[in-house]
Each structure stands twice: as C-alpha cells, then as structure tokens.
Amino acid sequence: QTPQFYLDYADLTWSSWYRYFINGWFAEHVQLAVGFIATCQGLIAISMLLKGWIYKIGGIGAILFLVSILPFGVGSGFPCTAIMAIAIYILLKKHDHSFIWETHKRIGHEAI
Q1: Taking 60 as the threshold, does the pLDDT of residue 104 lie above it?
Q2: Is 29 helix (H, G, I), strand (E, B) or coil?
Q3: CA-to-CA distance for 64 and 80, rounded, in angstroms?
C-alpha cells in the first residue's frame, strides 16, 4: 500500500551505486521490482522443499540474493544475511540431501 517505503533503504546502504539505483529506476518501478523479488523468493522457498537440481538452483538463487542485499547493511539484517548465505552454501555441499523431517529406522534392509 505504501511502496515508497522501500525508498528509505537508500539511506541505509553503504553503496553509492545501490543508492543511485534505488532513487532512480527502482523509485519509478517499485511495484514491478518488489513483485519480481517476492516471486523469486517464493520460488527459492519452494525449491528448498524439493531435491535434486531444483534444490541446487534454488540454493544458488538464495545465495545470490543474500549476497546482493549485503550492501544494505542493517537494512538487510546484516550480519544475518551473510551467515544465511554461508549456511546455504554448506547445505548445497552436503552429499546427503535428506529432509530434516525424514526419520528412517533401519532394521536389516527395510526402512520403517
């Protein structure tokens, strides 16, 4: 309802390029940009529930997003965003892509 609220983030960034971008193109296309970002975040969230190449693409997308908002500093929750990017990288490097909610008790060769 108040898309101009996002323009306040220009004051929080330490990057002059980000400040210029927010006060320029972004200011004229707030709803388009925020809608695109929200859609991408939703797709990343869905990919985190899946396995295989979709999971990897979503993880890479999450890392790129988190790294790209680091220049917003406290406006992006720094240092939490850096820690989350590292955590997702670790998850992508894990070879066992089982879900945390999956529990398997093995008796012999059968999973119960």
Answers
A1: no
A2: coil
A3: 15
